Structure prediction request, 234 residues.
Amino acid sequence: AQKITQTQPGMFVQEKEAVTLDCTYDTSDPSYGLFWYKQPSSGEMIFLIYQGSYDQQNATEGRYSLNFQKARKSANLVISASQLGDSAMYFCAMREGNYGGATNKLIFGTGTLLAVQP
Amino acid sequence: EAQVTQNPRYLITVTGKKLTVTCSQNMNHEYMSWYRQDPGLGLRQIYYSMNVEVTDKGDVPEGYKVSRKEKRNFPLILESPSPNQTSLYFCASSSSRLASRTDTQYFGPGTRLTVL
Prediction:
């Protein structure tokens, strides 16, 4: 069965430093997508970045990048130059199937609470 | 503006009193789903719907009902709420057929439910 594991319940980082949030996954489907969401204290879910299983390059979106290591089944989120506004809960999620017919169901990890310190 | 709306945003109720949380999307999405979020457990899917009149159980469906009579609406019904259903609930929607690989679900703002 597909599964997402986030082993860091909470992390601290100094403002302006980079931080890596860990995510490992398990699936038998060769086609899948990996997502990271941010949930600030206000509660909404904000989509950050996506990585497809067949993508040759690591995804990047502004200060967010995804360190995708397929053989190790890991998809770590890297936030560069942390800001106070980055303090939030971060969820890794996976969708099995990436093309027509995929149901778009997401499996979520348990989340990592990031606190950025001034 | 493309959005998913949920009502109410906050609800405190008592055990056994039937309640409905409404969800509506304006993006003409076929796929809609409900999740609950609990500390240490992440988000878990309750029910989902592939289209009008097509619904199916997710991972934690016990104690919940849904209906999909219109494409835009997907209400979550708790016929007899219990304290273990105290949680943060999210409605989400997306296209069923992925227009692009990066298609993901759009989430509503969440409904915080407390059952006493």
Remarks:
- The mean pLDDT of chain B is 92.
- Chain B touches chain A at residues 31, 33, 35, 40-45, 48, 50, 58, 88, 90, 92, 94-98, 101-105, 107, 109-110, 112 (CB under 8 Å).
- DSSP finds no helices and eleven strands in chain B.
